[in-house]
Amino acid sequence: MKRLAALVVFAALSFAAAAQQRNFDATVIKTTKLTDSLYMLEGEGGNIGVSVGDDGIMVIDDQFAPLTPKILAAIRAISDKTLKFVLNTHLHGDHVGGNANMAKEGVVIFAHDNVRKRMSTLQFNEYIKRNVPPYPKAALPVITFADTVTFHFNGDDITVFHTPPSHTDGDSIVYFAKGNVIHMGDVYASTRYPNIDTESGGSLMGFAPAVDLALKRIDDTTKVIPGHGPLSNKKELTEFRNVMNTVAQRGEKLFKAGKTMQEMVDAKPTRDFDAQWNRNTPRTPDQYVETMYYDFARHNLK
Amino acid sequence: MNKVFIFAAACLMSLGATAQQRNFDAVQIKVHQVAPNVYALEGEGGNIGVSVGDDGVLLIDDQFAPLTPKIVDAVKTITDKPIRFLLNTHWHGDHTGGNENLGKMGVIIIAHDNVYKRLSVDQVNLLGKTAALSKVGLPVVTFNDRVVYHINGDEITAYHVPPAHTDGDSFVRFRNANVVHTGDVFASGRYPFIDSTNGGSVKGIVAAIDKLLPELDDFTKVIPGHGPVSTKREVIAYRNMISTVASRVEEMVKQGKTLEQVIAAKPLKEFDAEWGKFRKTDDFIPFVYYGFAPYKPK
User: Fold this and answer.
1) Which residues of chain B neighbour A136 with C-beta distances below 8 Å?
2) Which domain holds residue B138?
3) pLDDT digits (tens, 9 = 90+) for A84-94
């Protein structure tokens, strides 16, 4: 439990509830050009996708509220067109923290139905083990969707599709068909095991099916923006998918065999992947398996 | 065929293709309040639904292009908030004619995927040709299933129904106001146009209304695509009329009857007095007939 407490303290630093206390002065927004009209911004929190062109600007996720001025400055360095749309890939504070600020700029915020539902009510975040209060109305998505919406914007068809529950129950992936770029939200972290927010309806078992929806659309030259981590590609995304699939199957087998949490931890179902995939996280592999166990227990697999 | 041709020519009057030539000077936009912050605008073409409130104005459909100034003026008599959103219930020109004007004003246009597809290229149907809209008039966001606007203290859900009046129909439900805009899946008290050679489906209208009915109660205000603001009762009457007409005409098609034979047999006799006042039975039957018989354009 001490281990868990240490984890909690560390992890709390990276979420919205603590964002206001946190000092972002040193954060620099790094801009990476992907195509003539698509950019990736890295700062603190989830990676941002930006579409610019004659129709205006569309932003995928907006990190933490204190970073909005820096993010806007980075966007203005690319384009002086009107900010039109923000799309939230899911509800977490490191992806929606700037919503209220962006709304003041006149954007219309889009997200899956469940993102607005959860942002409207008090949430318990299992990862940081604390309550996240409801967001003010100004921060909420104004238009929500159940399955798929397509933005016919800046000469591209930008398809936003909801995935099976994986990181949360409100995840969306954003595919820029003509730009050949895909933003995965936190369904994909390019250098580590993803967080599974079971409290927000996420599930380990959903990752491979969710990633498959992306894989069937993309090719070897597609630029893959992960929710966290460096810019990636189909090969790495496929490897991630296979790891998640293998771990889910092993965990499911152990759970169905009636193993206790400790027995599942001792079986080390992630062992051969840990060196590569348990990086950049305060969580030990054993803790990850504990989360898996809770996930299976929650779904009460028979 | 001659009759069909005359009929087609007459019908052209009521759609977008000839909207520019047509004179709308005499048209007045009537404003009907249907709920505390929901209005219906009646002019020429499809009825317009309006949501007003702190978050700005959402319009459901926008009639013909020449009417945009009058429609904008009518909205100004209700609210001083800007028109921010437009939802097209389907692609027909008497519901999307104002899109280019509103798009130029910065209004965000949303519709079902198939509305975008059809508005992007020239269309030909039983009523004639409709030219593609320029980019500014096309929906900028499209959906495959449904979207919800969380504005003006309401949850306004636009949801697609399987092929009915067209292949891109949406119903729009105002949850808190208890109002529904049906687009042209429902026309109150009149025979409708059905785009049966272009993705629509006669039986689909019945199926779509059957999906809608459980959401209506005795107090729901129903804004039809055409005709006066109605209630569940008129929707049910319309559904039953379409259902009977569909099975009757389908049967005659199965018997191998030509369109002329079907029209001559006057299969809708007992409905005509009530439903045939705006669109005559002879003009209506082809839409149903070609919903079941193959159509070969000349």
Assistant:
1) none
2) 29-292
3) 999 999 999 99
- For chain A, which residues make up each domain, given as ranges? 2-245
List the single best residue of B55, B141, B147, B155 to mutate versus A (max A Cβ within 10 A).
B141
| Centroid of chain to Cα A20 | 20
The confidence score (pLDDT) of residue B297 equals: 72
Distance CA B188, CA B229 (A): 8
Name the residue of chain A whose CA is nearest to B107's CA. A84
* CATH architecture entry for A2-245: 4-Layer Sandwich (3.60)
B146 touches chain A (CB under 8 A): yes
Question: Tens digits of per-residue pLDDT, B244-269?
Answer: 999 999 999 999 999 999 999 999 99
A-B Cβ pairs (cutoff 8 Å, strict): 56
Sequence-separated (6 or more) residues with CB below 8 Å from residue B146: A145, A146, A147, B157, B158, B159, B160, B170
Report pTM: 0.92
- pLDDT band at residue B14 under the 50/70/90 scheme: very low
For helices B202-212 and B232-254, the axis angle rounded to 10 degrees is 150
Closest CA to A106 of A84, A88, A76: A84
> What was the pLDDT predicted at A20?
53
A57, A81, A150, best to mutate vs chain B, most B CBs in 10 Å: A150
CA-nearest residue to B152 within chain A is A142
Residue B126 lies in a domain: yes
Asked whether the predicted pLDDT for residue B16 surpasses 90, the reply is: no
Q: Do A164 and A183 meet the contact criterion of CB atoms below 8 Å apart? A: no
- Give the total number of structural domains in chain B: 1
Domain assignment present for B17: no
For testing contact with chain A, the best of B150, B154, B175 (most A CBs within 10 A): B150
Hey, are the CB atoms on A150 and B142 less than 8 Å from each other?
yes
Q: Is residue B57 within 8 angstroms of chain A, CB to CB?
A: no
Determine contact: B105 vs chain A, CB below 8 A.
Answer: no
Which residues contact residue B112 at a Cβ distance below 8 angstroms, ignoring those fewer than 6 apart?
Answer: B90, B142, B143, B144, B160, B168, B169, B170
Q: What is the ipTM of this complex?
A: 0.92
Given a cut of 50, whether residue B214 has pLDDT beyond it is yes
State the smallest CA–CA distance between residue A146 and chain B in angstroms. Answer: 6
User: What CATH number should be reported for the domain holding residue B75?
Assistant: 3.60.15.10
Which residues in chain B have their CB less than 8 angstroms from residue A147's CB? 143-146
Residue B22 in domain: no
pLDDT of residue B60: 98
Spatial distance between the Cα atoms of B280 and B269, rounded to a whole number of angstroms = 11
pLDDT in tens, A64-83: 999 999 999 999 999 999 99
Residues in chain A with CB shorter than 8 Å from the CB of B113 are: 150
